[in-house]
Amino acid sequence: MERPLHFLHLEDDPNDLELVRATLESEGLMCDVEAASSREEFNAALERGGFDLILSDFTLPDFDGLSALRMSRAKAPEIPFILVSGTMGEEAAIESLQSGATDYVLKHRLSRLVPAVRRTLRESEERGKRRQAEEALQREQQFLKAVLESLEAGVVACDSRGVLTVFNPAAREFHGMSATPIPSEEWARHFDLYHPDGKTPMEKHAVPLFRALQGEHVRGAELMIVPKSGPARTLLVSGQPIFDAGGTKLGAVVALHDITERKQLEGQLQQAQKMEAIGQLAGGIAHDFNNILGAIIGYTELAKQDADGNEAVLQSLEAVGTASQRATGLVRQILAFSRQEDQERKPIQLVQVISEALKLLRATLPSAIEVRTTLDETASLVLADATQIHQIVMNLATNASHAMKDSPGVLDVKLTGIDVDANFARTQMDLRPGRYVRLSVSDTGHGMDRTTLDRIFEPFFTTKPPGKGSGMGLSTVLGITKSHHGAIIVYSQPGEGTAFHLYFPALDDVTEEVELHSGAVPRGHGERILFVDDEEPLAQWGQNALERLGYDVTSRTDVLEAIAMMGEQPGRFDLVVTDMSMPVMNGVTLSQRLLQIRADLPIILTTGYVASMTEASVREFGIRGLLVKPNTIQSLAEAVHRVLTQTKVP
Amino acid sequence: MKPMIRILLVDDDDLFRQMLHTTLKRFGYDVVAARNGNEALALHQREPFDLIMTDLIMPEKEGLETIRDLRRQKPDMKIIAMSGGARTIVGDHLKMAKAMGAAQVLAKPFSNQEMMEAIEATLGKAQ
Fold it and tell me: Which pLDDT value is given to residue A88?
């Protein structure tokens, strides 16, 4: 059943009230009337609100219809207002309509009342629906705006004439423009577009939005955008024309994805693969060269014996010997690059090594070069080969000095502890989030362009004249840094100098605490472990780490003590973890001695570098696991857990 | 007069092996040469040697494997390992050889003096 009509009726005559009500109900309009006969009652009723309609007399003892109309328009403009009067003149009627009355009905023509009310209600309902639709549309637009504003992808759209209509915040950021709209003819002042090579300017017909507007479905287009303010970015763009339901072209839209980081990593990977390939090649050549050099040096010595004291011949052979020694040195450098040279890594303070190297360097550098050093004495220990770090500093500083040779300049050497966060690590292939020690060597020299920068780490690549440089300096620096599980980042601009930043993992990497509590690390239950390492800090580290994982750990730096402990009580430990390179006895020999005491003793060997050793090859010696340093708590925990679990299974 | 010391020389690199062969003979040793581990093992079974000098990276039978098998045949065999690197770290490879029982190791290229010191250190200990 239809809801009764709930209306407010301002009327001082009860007969008229009843008459109106009867008229409405006689036409089937059920009424729920709230009557008011004074200003106060009318005002109170308006305050309560909720009416479908207001009917009002024109003349009341202390009030009048026009005042009531003004009051209701102020308080409830959406409620229709109909004047019902016996005395209203034409002028008053017009004034009331102008003031916002919906209609007026004369009491002596009350037959007009019902159609007027019906029409008013119908119009009121339509207005309500329209308002709802408008509100819904507004909500939808706000939602769409919020979506566009929160997108990481840039969205740009234009109408069919190419006028930009959508330019979300991400797109503005990519284009280096402020949040305020900028007319399209001014855009060129804010940014340049290039092809992915970053050099060739992009012609208008190649711009994805333009192509989409021409009707093309653009997929996987790459371009480089260089804003006048803000960083250059590589963008991956897709786009298409937009049509309405009838097939009329409304414009075009493109989505822009920032793939700068990915491109950077791809570049780094490519570079790393190239270096790896060159390294393997160089390593293979080095092996053959060592054999050839061995033969040359050997035959030279034989020839010297056969020279029978002939001075001229002896001098020539001496020269062959000297040349061979130089070649031998070069091959050593190649091996260092391809990381095939032996190294003795120990926990060291880089500060000391760097200071010593710089002391040596100062004597050889031109006096026009000012050396500035900022070395943080409190930077963490690093597991490193001091001789190799020394070499790195010498090579970098020598290059820096060459870059500044003709003019006064500054060689700046810095050492700082630094936390690499996840965001930064994502952009660098060789970095993981965590604590690092960073060695920075920068100069104010001539700098390098992109092409040179791409090749500086290649063996035998040199910018020096023939005979002046081996081209192995930076290759060696890269090889050494990588073998220390480090990373190199180079910044250089022609004319603006060069900065090398070398990152070495800090020995007390704080991220291990995080790993330890992440729950992904397998833990022990009181299993007894003997940890052997001749370096006290490493032995201590191993003991602490394994104890925190729930093992019962004894550590020793003396292999003979370790053997004695096993000899006295072969069943005392469930597992032995030993370092490979130790002075008195290496890890393999120690393992063999321990296995002679107890053949089924599980042993894990840890080693600094193991191209030659594999799990399979150490198993020949009865060793169950192999761990490559620097080992994290994670890798140590996994190896220990794995070996202990294998042991338990019959 | 002391009997001549017999050395078995194992190296796949012809030039290097011939050079070392000549040099060792000059120093007064009785030298037999083999081109790989298999040849060396066969020779070793047939006749006794005082010292074996072996390369580590060889085709057919690797140096480390050769050392292991030689010592199975004769546990107190005196062995000097030599390597020019590649495919591995020179130092670690030589360390492995030492762990497997090589008395001395020589990184190629080496001088006559370094070689003689290694031989004397090895045989000196034996005698």
Answer: 76
Q: Do B87 and A611 touch (CB under 8 A)?
A: yes
**Distance from the B14 Cα atom to the nearest Cα atom in chain A, whole angstroms:** 9
Closest CA to A253 of A371, A190, A167, A364: A167
In a domain, A515, yes or no: no
Buried b (16+ CB within 10 A) or exposed e, A371-396: eeeebeeebbbbbbbbebbebbbbbb
Predicted confidence (pLDDT) per residue in A618-640, tens digit: 777 788 888 766 566 777 888 89
Whether A315 and A366 map to the same domain: the answer is no
Using the predicted structure, report yes or no on whether residue B42 has a pLDDT greater than 90. Answer: yes
Please, which pLDDT band fits residue B88 given cuts at 50, 70 and 90?
very low
For chain A, the average pLDDT equals 85
pLDDT at A357: 87
- Please identify which residue in the block is written with the tokens 């952009």: A427
**Do A296 and A354 sit in the same domain of this protein?**
no
Helix H or strand E segment including A223: strand A218-227
Q: Does B103 touch chain A (CB under 8 A)?
A: no
Q: Is the preceding peptide bond at B109 cis, omega within 30 degrees of 0?
A: yes
Q: Is A12 exposed, middle or buried (0-12, 13-18, 19+ CB in 10 A)?
A: middle
- Let me know whether A329 and A351 are in one domain: no
Report the pLDDT value the prediction gives residue B125, as an integer from 0 to 100: 45
CB contact under 8 A, B87 and A581: no
- B90 interface with A at CB cutoff 8 Å: yes
Both tokens of B99, joined, read 């762990």
Statement to judge: residues A386 and A499 lie in one domain:
yes
At A52, which CATH number? 3.40.50.2300
Ranges of chain A with pLDDT below 70: 1-2, 179-185, 187, 338-344, 406, 466-469, 508-520, 608-615, 628-632, 647-650
With contacts defined as CB-CB under 8 Å, which chain A residues touch B85?
283, 286-287, 290, 335, 340-341
Mean confidence (pLDDT) of chain B: 85
For residue A243, list its beta bridge partners.
A249
Closest approach of A279 to chain B, Cα-based (Å): 10
**What is the predicted pLDDT for the residue at A630?**
56
Residue-level pLDDT at A500: 96
On chain A, the residues whose CB falls within 8 A of the CB of B88 are 340, 611-612
CB contact under 8 A, A301 and B93: no
A145 within domain boundaries: no
- Report the CATH number that the domain containing residue A359 is assigned in CATH: 3.30.565.10
| Model confidence band, residue B86 (pLDDT cutoffs 50, 70, 90) | very low
* Closest in B99, B109, B112 to A290, CB measured: B109
Residue A184's pLDDT is 63
Question: Taking the model in full, what pTM does it have?
Answer: 0.50
Distance from the B48 Cα atom to the nearest Cα atom in chain A, whole angstroms? 27
- Shortest Cα distance from A300 to chain B (angstroms)? 10
CA–CA separation, B111 and B107 (whole Å): 10
Contact assignment for B86 to A287 by CB distance below 8 Å: yes
* A23, A297, B9, B57 from B54: Cα distances, Å: 125, 18, 6, 9
Residue range(s) defining the domain that contains residue A477 = 346-505
Q: Are residues A118 and A158 in the same domain?
A: no
* Residues A122 and A158 both lie in one domain: no
Shortest alpha-carbon distance between residue B1 and chain A (Å): 25
**Partner A contacted by B68 (CB < 8 A):** yes
> Is A429 inside any structural domain?
yes
- Do A89 and A215 fall within a single domain? no
Q: Are residues A111 and A170 in the same domain?
A: no
Q: Is residue A291 part of a domain?
A: yes
Residue B98 C-alpha from the chain's centroid? 12
Overall number of domains in chain A: 5
Smallest Cα distance from A578 to chain B, Å? 14
Give chain A positions within 8 Å (CB) of B111: 297, 301
Contact B85 A287 (CB under 8 A): yes
Instruction: Please answer yes or no on whether B88 and A607 come within 8 Å at the CB atom.
Output: no
At A395 the three-state DSSP class reads: helix
Judge whether B118 is closer than 8 Å to chain A, CB to CB: no
pLDDT of residue A8: 93
